[in-house]
Design a protein that fits this description.
Order of helices and strands: EEEHEEEEHHEHEHEHEHEHEHEHE
Strand content: 25-35%
Structural class: alpha/beta
Radius of gyration: 20 Å
Shape: globular
Length: 334
């Protein structure tokens, strides 16, 4: 079978399409899945470029969508022909967070889904949302579930709440769609007026170009009245001060990204004055993903997939991600 691998120490020019042995039949508690799609995340980019070192010859990509080909003894949840999607933390089945590293994350600590078939425990997958193709399903594993957990699981989002989203990448666009489906009002920032217009077509209530509005936190706070209830913070130290400015007293900031760096000054006095909850998070549990799939089917949300690349063009897909031109998710299909 075909598999994409990355040679140590990483780099887009070190991605290779290889022939690997078929995985064989599933054992007890396992399923064999024919994979047909994945989607790109910042985490995957860190792995393939060597920013997050992994083993030589690692198969990248944390997201995988496909079809069950066979089930092992004792598997009752799935049957051959079922559409399934992978879990970012295959060992975190339910309950509060207990995993703080990527040692068992596909495409990082273990082989990922840039390959044609895998045999894994059935609990490494959930069913895919009905009507989703493999690429659409793959977008929920990392970006979609992160947005869901930030707003719903941890944030207890409710109708009438106000939400601030930073940028128009995969997590932010998923969060926009989730928030609007649940009756929230949404502000979103970008450096591109064209992308802000696209966000408005998806229901964004307030848009702001952060390049022309350096004090965007105050503008968002003024728009919302007393400050927003939720911030999905993907920037990190370079944007956190403005996010704290934008949030209401007692509000919730989900820290899920470090696009502006891994360390920096935190305005602790401002955070204390706001009495806001600043919570770091990394994706979510299998039970969270199952709840998310149910919500997607109930609301009819479909992911925004900007472009699709062939598996052998994975390096070009990451170069497109580097350009920052995408809106929503970038897919890979085969």
């Amino acid at each position: 079978m075909k598999a994409m691998t990355v040679a140590a120490p990483g780099g887009l020019d070190r991605l290779r399409l290889e022939e690997r042995p078929e995985p064989g039949d599933p054992g007890p508690g396992e399923i064999r899945v024919a994979l047909h799609g994945s989607s790109l995340n910042y985490h995957d980019y860190g792995v393939v470029t060597g920013g997050m070192p992994t083993d030589d010859g690692r198969v990248p990509m944390a997201d995988g969508g496909g079809t069950v080909e066979a089930v092992g003894e004792g598997v009752r949840e799935f049957a051959a022909g079922d559409s399934v999607v992978s879990c970012f933390f295959p060992d975190w089945l339910a309950g509060p967070a207990r995993i703080g590293d990527f040692s068992r994350t596909p495409g990082d600590g273990i082989d990922g889904f840039a390959q044609e078939r895998v045999v894994l425990p059935a609990t490494a997958f959930t069913r895919a949302p009905k009507g989703y193709d493999a690429v659409e399903a793959a977008t929920i594993t990392t970006a979609g579930l992160t947005a869901w957990r930030a707003l719903v699981v941890d944030g207890n989002l409710k109708a009438g709440d106000t939400v601030l989203l930073l940028g128009t990448g995969g997590v932010s666009i998923w969060a926009l769609q989730i928030a609007k489906a649940m009756g929230a009002r949404v502000a979103i920032t970008s450096s591109s007026d064209e992308k802000l217009e696209r966000a408005r077509t998806l229901g964004a209530d307030f848009t702001l170009n952060y390049r022309s509005e350096a004090e965007w936190g105050r503008r968002v706070r003024d728009w919302s009245g007393a400050g927003v209830d939720h911030v999905v913070e993907v920037g990190g130290p370079g944007t956190l001060a403005q996010s704290i400015e934008a949030v209401r007293v007692g509000g919730h900031i989900s820290l899920i990204g470090v696009l502006t760096g891994r360390g920096g000054e935190v305005p602790t006095a401002a955070l204390m004055a706001k009495q806001a909850r600043l919570q770091g998070l990394i994706v979510g549990s299998r039970a969270d993903q199952q709840a998310f799939v149910t919500a997607l089917e109930a609301t009819g949300i479909r992911p925004v997939v900007d472009r699709r690349f062939a598996l052998e063009d994975l390096a070009d897909a990451f170069r497109y991600e580097e350009s920052g031109s995408h809106f929503g998710k970038i897919g890979v299909e085969w």
